[in-house]
């Protein structure tokens, strides 16, 4: 067994994490005569005992959010709560006066959650009903998984949790009081028979980047040989120039502190444009954006928990994935892309209208940052020849032959310039389930009807997801370095520029680039 512990840091990360865990829950098979699930649940779930003595299975995860970020979700849920007398907890004989208890108003659960609590079929989720990530959550967590940080309020205008330094200081303050690894992480780590790695979901452009950076440093000190995969979430929405510069500076700090210590760092962003015609989402809704990202994240990590795969090899651990993509030790940043395939490819051959299978990126493109219309692109970004170091692809198709056809088409697209790229592919007929908590963001021609080998026979998607290490990240890194060189204070500037420079060198070493020197 090779267990993975997941850290979710921040409200944005918890939206993505909720989609991830809802999908994992859908893989469980409860009927006695059902065939075993292709997914090894022990990788991401921990066994336990509930308050009634029954066995429980809860995620190996730590969920951090600010005050007010958990919505209607209770820390003690139905698996662990006990009925208590109304006078429980009041010391008898120490106080003979009346007591007045003041409580903050509770967030009422939406109809979807009330239906889940009563065991009824859940109501359809509408975009306006999703206020928090907990509104579409379908899973019970261990009470020690949920950690609310009361020092800051969610979406506060008085004390916004936006600066990298605030997150760094908050972690150090809490760590001095409690030792966060001892209080929060070690319980889950000690339950593992053979922990293979840590998966971190975090915002990268605000204070959570600072919190994550300190957390990664603490983990690396304590678990020096453990694989750490970090997913850095970025908001691609248009904001004022000043706010975008602040976000970029926070991102520079995050990359400088996390990339050297992590096994693999994957930037995540949901572009408002450049999406294919079969994707129909509202870019203002975190529920929609996180759902799109979750399909790719869940798919490209599927081999780490899948019992069997087809094709040329299998990745069973996070370290295997990181070592394949990090060819020479200097490529620790990978980009993510995805294709959702036509559910009925034969229909287009018969002349029926259909949007083609178009691959789209969910990470950095080859350009620089655009600060509210003010282009700040690195010279040489346009048209420079890129070099691919490695690609790992997971293909989930409705049947084995379809998976092989998709994989063959993808291989043929590699250019002669990248013939030496390392290519790992993993094929499976275990398609992605679109459960009732998942928004309708894909056109009807992408949805495979209910039935077949999927989670409880529901509707599903045929998906390909790729992680790629290539020189395409160089222009973006140079743009970030450019901004940091002008904005970051003198005391920290040199260290950040050196760290970012080393990241860039890692993608320039071993091949000849035709691009110009983009540093100012």
TrEMBL record:
Family, as annotated: Belongs to the misato family.
Listed Gene3D superfamilies: Tubulin/FtsZ, GTPase domain
Residue span(s) of domain DML1/Misato tubulin: 123-306
Residue span(s) of domain Misato Segment II tubulin-like: 2-117
Keywords: Mitochondrion
Keyword hit for Cytoplasm: no
Main location (coarse class): mitochondrion
Organism listed in the record: Tuber magnatum
GO biological process, one term: mitochondrion organization
Keyword Mitochondrion set for record: yes
A GO cellular component annotation in the UniProt record: mitochondrion
Function: Involved in the partitioning of the mitochondrial organelle and mitochondrial DNA (mtDNA) inheritance.
Cross-referenced InterPro entries: DML1/Misato, DML1/Misato_tubulin, Misato_II_tubulin-like, Tubulin/FtsZ_GTPase_sf
Protein name as catalogued: Tubulin nucleotide-binding domain-like protein
Subcellular location: Mitochondrion
CDD domains in alphabetical order: misato (cd06060)
């Amino acid at each position: 067994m090779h267990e993975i512990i997941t850290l979710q840091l921040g409200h944005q990360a918890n939206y993505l994490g909720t989609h991830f865990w809802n999908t994992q829950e859908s893989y469980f098979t409860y009927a006695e005569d059902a065939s075993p699930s292709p997914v090894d649940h022990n990788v991401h779930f921990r066994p336990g005992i509930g308050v009634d003595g029954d066995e429980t299975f809860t995620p190996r995860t730590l969920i951090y959010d600010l005050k007010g970020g958990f919505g209607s979700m209770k820390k003690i849920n139905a698996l662990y709560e006990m009925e208590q007398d109304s006078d429980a907890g009041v010391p008898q004989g120490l106080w003979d006066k009346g007591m007045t208890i003041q409580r903050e108003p509770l967030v009422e659960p939406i109809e979807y959650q009330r239906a889940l609590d009563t065991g009824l079929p859940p109501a359809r989720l509408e975009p306006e009903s999703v206020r928090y990530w907990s509104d579409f959550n379908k899973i019970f967590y261990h009470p020690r998984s949920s950690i609310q940080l009361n020092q800051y309020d969610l979406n506060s205008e008085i004390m916004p949790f936006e600066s990298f330094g605030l997150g760094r200081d908050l972690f150090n303050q809490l760590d001095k009081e409690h030792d966060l690894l001892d209080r929060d992480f070690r319980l889950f780590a000690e339950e593992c028979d053979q922990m293979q790695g840590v998966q971190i979901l975090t915002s990268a452009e605000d204070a959570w980047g600072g919190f994550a950076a300190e957390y990664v440093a603490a983990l690396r000190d304590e678990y020096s040989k453990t694989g750490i995969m970090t997913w850095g979430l970025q908001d691609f929405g248009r904001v004022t120039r000043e706010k975008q510069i602040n976000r970029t500076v926070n991102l520079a700090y995050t990359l400088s502190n996390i990339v050297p210590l992590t096994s693999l760092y994957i930037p995540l962003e949901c572009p408002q444009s450049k999406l294919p015609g079969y994707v129909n989402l509202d870019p203002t809704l975190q529920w929609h954006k996180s759902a799109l990202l979750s399909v790719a994240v869940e798919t490209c990590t599927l081999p780490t928990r899948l019992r069997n795969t087809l094709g040329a090899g299998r990745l069973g651990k996070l370290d295997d994935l990181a070592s394949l993509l990090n060819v020479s030790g200097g490529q620790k940043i990978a980009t993510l892309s995805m294709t959702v395939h036509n559910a009925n490819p034969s229909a287009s051959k018969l002349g029926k209208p259909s949007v083609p299978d178009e691959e789209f990126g969910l990470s950095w493109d080859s350009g620089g940052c655009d600060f509210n219309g003010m282009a700040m692109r690195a010279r040489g970004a346009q048209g420079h020849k890129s070099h691919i170091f490695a690609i790992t692809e997971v293909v989930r198709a409705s049947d084995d032959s379809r998976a092989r056809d998709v994989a063959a088409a993808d291989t043929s697209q590699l250019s002669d310039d990248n013939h030496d790229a390392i290519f790992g592919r993993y094929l499976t007929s275990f398609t992605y389930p679109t459960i009732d908590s998942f928004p309708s963001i894909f056109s009807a021609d992408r949805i495979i009807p209910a039935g077949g080998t999927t989670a409880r026979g529901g509707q599903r998607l045929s998906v390909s997801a790729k992680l790629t290490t290539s020189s395409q990240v160089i222009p973006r890194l140079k743009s970030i370095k450019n901004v940091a060189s002008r904005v970051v204070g003198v005391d920290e500037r040199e260290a950040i520029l050196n760290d970012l420079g080393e990241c860039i060198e890692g993608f320039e070493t071993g091949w000849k680039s035709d691009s110009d020197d983009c540093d100012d």
